[in-house]
Write a structure and sequence with these properties.
The protein is mainly beta. The chain has a single domain, classed as Immunoglobulin-like, CATH 2.60.40. It has a three-stranded antiparallel β-sheet with strand order 1-6-5, with no helix packed on it. It has a three-stranded antiparallel β-sheet with strand order 2-4-7, with no helix packed on it. The longest helix has 20 residues.
Length: about 140
């Protein structure tokens, strides 16, 4: 009977140890990146295009620190003027890299109608860089 009790205690102890060792406390949580607006410094691309043709514009922008990376392009309104802004994402931990260099991304523009269009990217808190494109 003592042997059976000892075996039972050992089995319970072993199972308890197995359950505790499978705990996922060891997983490191990745902090969520922080998104902020980045100001454009230059927009390069074609001045003319055709209806339903996709045009590519190279947008140069500045990030706050060297860890900043392109996230997305979103719409923004300054006063009553609508335009676009580049958003950059930054890791939530401290950045140890040196001085940031200007970054680049590509903006695609396509129009289904003829006309003259202004592509506006936010360059400061109050201004846009404007690039005109004529679609034939």
């Amino acid at each position: 009977m003592k042997s059976f009790r000892l075996k039972s205690v050992l089995v319970v102890l072993f199972l308890s140890l197995a359950v505790v060792s499978c705990n996922n406390d060891d997983e490191v949580e990745t902090p969520n990146p922080v998104a902020k607006a980045a100001f454009a410094t230059e927009v390069k691309g074609p001045a003319t295009g055709k209806v339903n043709d996709e045009l590519s514009y190279e947008v140069t922008f500045l990030v706050d620190n060297a860890c900043g990376e392109f996230d997305k392009i979103s719409e923004v309104t300054l006063g009553t003027v609508k335009g676009l802004q580049v958003e950059a994402k930054y890791p939530s931990e401290v950045c140890t890299q040196q001085v940031p260099a200007p970054k680049k991304t590509t903006y695609k523009f396509k129009s289904a109608v003829k006309g003259t269009f202004d592509i506006k990217f936010r360059k400061s808190e109050t201004e846009f860089i404007t690039t005109k494109v004529v679609i034939d």
